[in-house]
Amino acid sequence: MKSIINKFKIIDGEKFSLEDMPTDFSGDYKKEDTEALLASMIKETAAMQDALYADNRYALLIIFQAMDAAGKDGAISHTLSGLNPEGCEVFSFKQPSTEELDHDFLWRHYKALPEFGRIGVHNRSHYENVLITKVHPELLLQEKLPGIKDVKDVDKKFWKHRYESIRAFEKHLSENGTVIIKFFLNVSKAEQKQRFLQRIEDPEKNWKFSAADVYEREFWEDYMKAYEKAIQETSTESSPWYVLPADKKWFTRIAISTIILDTLKGLKLKYPVLPKEEKAKLEDAKKKLMGE
Predict the structure, then answer these.
(1) Under a CB-based contact definition with an 8 Å cutoff, are residues 52 and 114 in contact?
(2) Residue 121 near residue 79, CB atoms below 8 Å
(3) Order of strands across the sheet that contains 119-123
(4) What angle do CA 254, 128, 2 make, to 5 degrees?
(5) What GO MF terms are annotated (predicted)?
(6) Cα–Cα nearest to 184, from 141, 136, 144, 226
(7) Of 21, 1, 4, 2, nearest to 228 (Cα)?
(8) Cα separation, 132 vs 7, whole angstroms
(9) CA 50 to CA 223: how far, in whole Å?
(10) Degrees (nearest 5) of the Cα angle 222, 226, 231?
(11) Positive or negative, the Cα torsion across 31, 205, 71, 41?
(12) Domains of the chain: which residue ranges?
């Protein structure tokens, strides 16, 4: 699986084109094998999570970005539900609040970063500030940015600086112990349409649908350009993107679990070894307990 996953790993933005990335790939994997495979990987990941907590040198930040109905919520649920909830926290970022707009665009995301020994999941992230704001630049006027009084003030130099801010932010995190994995769930426009129709036709899924989803669909090509540019500008060795096929949810979940597990294994996590003095204290405590 690792060799297959590498097909979707982007560490050099200059060589990346979204048109080259498939949306319906599944390799030699079969849907009927998904449940057993995921269960096995989740069990192994849970053991690695325990080691991550005990080692206490790293934090793992997992970022999910995608178009509506690409399967982010389901992917998070199916790949992380077996972990210890005390060591894993999910943040779903929506429209920024008044307080958040009174700070720079990274502030609310920095606040939500995981502590060492823990896993943090950001369902949407700081990348919204180069995605939806790229498609709808009028939203930037809410940020009260110096020199930005009109949409016409948002030029190439502005976006260049914003990408630089994101790269610097992630570089700082990486150099200080936060390991970053970024997933873009690459769903096709045709598959999104089918999922929207399912939400409309199934009463139990009606709550998932919003008329705004269809409105944003009209900007599909603009979003694809925004995603491609964001990935090109922010793909690095220490902070890679994974552009995963998302038309087949079951394969997407296998890929996500594989990447998370391989990343944790790559950290060479170790349980703390107590010095001789502390071990001696443990023996004394054991003797006292046995003597009660």
Answers:
(1) no
(2) no
(3) 9-10, 241-245, 178-186, 59-66, 119-123, 88-92
(4) 25
(5) polyphosphate kinase activity
(6) 226
(7) 21
(8) 27
(9) 38
(10) 150
(11) negative
(12) 2-290
The pLDDT tens digits of the residues spanning 116-125 come to 999 999 999 9
Q: What separation in angstroms does the CA of 232 have from each of 85, 105, 183, 283?
A: 34, 20, 14, 56
Question: How does DSSP assign 97-123, residue by residue?
Answer: -HHHHTS-TTHHHHHTPPPTT-EEEEE
- What does each C-alpha distance from 277 to 91, 272, 286 come to in angstroms? 42, 14, 14
Query: At a CB cut-off of 8 Å and minimum separation 6, what does 69 contact?
Result: 187, 192, 195, 196, 199, 213
Question: What pLDDT, in 10s, does the model give residues 39-65?
Answer: 999 999 999 999 999 999 999 999 999
Q: Are 68 and 208 in contact (CB under 8 A)?
A: no
Which two three-digit tokens encode residue 190? 């045709």
Residue range 74-107, pLDDT digits in tens: 999 999 988 999 999 999 999 999 999 999 999 9
CB 44 within 8 A of CB 167: no
With cut-offs at 50, 70 and 90, classify the pLDDT of residue 232. Answer: very high
Q: Which residue has the tokens 């979003």?
A: 223
Instruction: Reduce the DSSP state of residue 281 to 3 states and report it.
Output: helix
Distances 124 to 17, 91, 265 between C-alpha atoms, Å: 21, 8, 25
User: Of 64, 41, 45, which Cα lies nearest the Cα of 53?
Assistant: 45
In whole angstroms, give the CA distance from residue 273 to residue 120: 26
Confirm or reject CATH 3.40.50.300 for domain 2-290, answering yes or no: yes
From the list 29, 8, 69, 5, the residue with the least C-alpha distance to 199 is 69
The owner of tokens 């409309």 is 200
Per DSSP, the chain holds a count of helices (H) and strands (E) of: 12, 6
